[in-house]
Amino acid sequence: MKLMKTEDAVGQVLCHDITQIIRGEKKGPVFRKGHVIREEDIPVLLSVGKDHVYIWENNENTLHENEAAEILYDLCRNDYMHSTAVKEGKIELVSDIDGLLKVDREKLNAVNALGEMMIATRHGNFPVKKGDHLAGTRIIPLVIEKEKMERARRAAPGGKILTVLPFHHKKAGIVTTGNEVYYGRIQDTFTDVVQGKLSEFDVEIIGHEVCSDDHEMITGAIRKLLDAGADMIFCTGGMSVDPDDRTPLAIKNTGARIVTYGAPVLPGAMFLLAYYGEKHIPVCGLPGCVMYNKRTVFDLVLPRLMADEILEKRDLDVLGEGGLCLNCGTCTFPNCGFGK
């Protein structure tokens, strides 16, 4: 770009928007970038304080901000998302579906570290809905060196900084455990809570088994639901370290692979995650806090299971920072720090 005296700029192409502010009436662009300056435009430009304007001139070593913004968009985009129109070197990405947002933090940080460009995203590992804005990208200066954008490509090889994993229809089974419920001493209030959580997604509950604390009975109930075609199973009734809490043993005895028994999340420290068989069917042991706390580890894990993400222990280990729910008087989850 080239700085030119406004009176001498007739016939030149603006390389940035010119904003006009009239108190109580207007604030917005009076001329858009790409506008060819006419003789009658000169007084207007002078009235908004533009004694000089930047005009576009071709340079084989630089890119206009809008061209460079397209490169940032290409580095971010993946399936199930689209872009907004480029404006002042800025492009936003919008989700085409309901799903789970994943962010490649290593690539994101590498691009942002280059300077003169930025990508700002929502938090990864949380649900998004169709039409939600996922990220915004922007080139900071009006023009940028081509070599700088090549460095951005190298910093994020293969692109795909953002991914939206679609949610899937699931068939769920619920196993309620505990002598107190099985023998009718108290009413089961846990199952309703789990059903409520599952109703936020496309889940069909195909079975509900009520068991005593007998671990063989619990194992049999889990296997019955697996045989019935369950894609996921949730064992309720609490997951404690008490000797008479046999649910972890029962889950293990199904042959499921225990990923973790415990998570650095409060509420939810006693959460158990296991996977059964070659299809990696999740079998979860839900701690009692899920029944009486509004948000728990279950809210952090369930969306990822719905997107068929196979979680490993390290995926839960990193939840410690942000893993403390503050039990706010008015819950704003997920628009808060919990799980982030």
UniProtKB/TrEMBL annotation:
This is Molybdopterin molybdenumtransferase. One of its GO terms (biological process) is Mo-molybdopterin cofactor biosynthetic process. Its EC number is 2.10.1.1. InterPro entries: MoaB/Mog-like_dom_sf, MoaB/Mog_dom, MoeA-like. GO terms for molecular function: metal ion binding; molybdopterin molybdotransferase activity. It comes from the Bacteria. Signal peptide: none annotated. It is an enzyme of class 2 (transferase). The keyword Ribonucleoprotein does not apply. It comes from Bilifractor porci. Keywords: Magnesium, Metal-binding, Molybdenum, Molybdenum cofactor biosynthesis, Transferase. Residues 173-307 form the MoaB/Mog domain. Its cofactor is Mg(2+). Belongs to the MoeA family. Coiled coil: none annotated.
